[in-house]
Amino acid sequence: MDISVVIPLYNEEESLPELTEWIRRVMTGHDFSYEIILVDDGSKDTSWKVIEELKSTHEQISGIRFRRNYGKSAALNVGFNAAQGDVVITMDADLQDSPDEIPELYNRIMNSNADLVSGWKQKRYDPLTKTIPTKLFNSVTRNMSGIHNLHDFNCGLKAYRKDVVKSIEVYGEMHRYIPVLAKWAGFTNIQEQIVQHYPRKYGTTKFGPGRFVKGFLDLLSIFFVGKFGKRPMHFFGTIGVLSFVVGFFITCYLVFEKLRSIAEGTVYRNITDQPLFYLSLVAILIGTQLFLTGFIAELVSRNSSERNQYHIEKII
């Protein structure tokens, strides 16, 4: 099969018939073999009934329904597990992503050896309350991830080589960072394509400001797990030792100063009367705690069933 189109959705009953018909026209016009996987993320409207009706007349459509709303990341993860196409295309169900972009995205994956091609909505039809935070979010993500050639990490329209979606796990708010997950999994040929963005035609946006807070915390999680997931002692131990050493040397300095003052017969302050002593004590305690945290995390990591699971590309 050439293409799997994975579409997570929540309360999009009006747009589904138009979207699936649009995809069908594009696929038929380019003679692609394909499947459309609609993942209903616990919709409260009649979206699932619409999916059942579409399935009865369109054999390439399959549907997955969650019992409740789990979020876009969960919907994508389930869709990725079900996808069988050589190239997996993701898009939103609100008709703001154009299926006409699919052939070019497919060609970029197949002909340029790209692992992932992310859409860039260079001209957006979103309110400033969404576009300004999005630009800030993308800037922070570029700097933290080292993927400097992407302008829009959160664009729903993306194309993946099949190996990519089978090698990553998407959860929480991680759908915003799939390029980062792919990079940590060893898929470094990440490209970008300018895509058309359309105004929302039906329904209301599911965007909320709280998502940026959760998204930023998930970015920190990705950064930490990707870099230190199999060696947590390198992170906690390094910071812990530095903190302990700083506190220890401050304490030594205070003791030395007191002994020097006694030897010279000059007035001195008790060590416990100096604020610097308590700062050094806190640094020593924090350093010890961080070191022990790293030690415990290392024990947990070494006893994990996934401690020696690695993504192997080829064997000859």
TrEMBL record:
A single GO cellular-component term on record: plasma membrane
UniProt KW keywords: Cell membrane, Glycosyltransferase, Lipopolysaccharide biosynthesis, Membrane, Transferase, Transmembrane, Transmembrane helix
Phylogenetic placement of the source organism: Bacteria, Pseudomonadati, Bacteroidota, Sphingobacteriia, Sphingobacteriales
Species for this entry: Sphingobacterium haloxyli
Residues of the Glycosyltransferase 2-like domain: 4-167
UniProt key word Transcription: no
Database matches in Pfam families: Glycos_transf_2
Domain of life: Bacteria
Gene Ontology molecular function: any one: undecaprenyl-phosphate 4-deoxy-4-formamido-L-arabinose transferase activity
BP GO annotations: lipopolysaccharide biosynthetic process
Protein name: Glycosyltransferase
